[in-house]
Model the fold of this input.
Amino acid sequence: MSNTLDIRRSSPQVAEIWLNRPDVRNAFNDGVIAELTAAFSTLGADPELRAIVLGGHGKAFCAGADLSWMRAMADYTWAQNHADAGGLAQMLWAIWSCPVPVVGRVHGDCYAGGVGLAAVCDVLVASVAANFCLSEARLGLLPATIGPYVVRALGEQASRRYFITAERFSATQAAALGFVHEVTAPDQLDNKVAEIVAALVANGPAAVKACKQLVKDVAGTPITAGLRDDTARRIADIRASHEGREGVQAFLNKRDPSWKT
Done:
């Protein structure tokens, strides 16, 4: 366990990454950003891993940027600001592009950059007591680096409102907008996360990674002849693979596939 992250391997198939700065509501700085980038890059390359849970210790998921870090940035030059933002962009990309599914566990406050962290998760589970806020405009700033991911996850119309008003919105509102997948009572949050992780681990590991990539590749893409051919090739590839053949045979013979035994 580092000073900023608590990384656990609950089983060979599941890893947990916990933001571990509860005294500052898990606000991030350049150290947290570097550690998250490294953690997801490393775990994403692990062939045994089937799911990663991202959560936070203490009373909040993530309150955005650390105040001390923000004070230091107040004196940065444009070039320093650009380089600093590039580090955050790389961290978000490392999570977004991680081939292993990421389940976000959100409780308490999820503000500013914390919303960006939530947006790059594949499945988002939130406590009913969680609150979300894209608060950058209150400080005369904008959620630029997290913007591409938040707009995809929250939707253009809702993003238009919450980017410019910096209003807080609840987990229930976030679910209604499609940003959050599941809202639970606080004492049921871990149970729901475990349920989703179990569903992921029960599926073909190569198929799950291929499904994740498929969504990214086809979302918002015109349905051209090229795309139709590409998707036909993908299903042909996986049907002909060892995992695809094993899964179909297991289903036809009414037995568990090899990855479940």
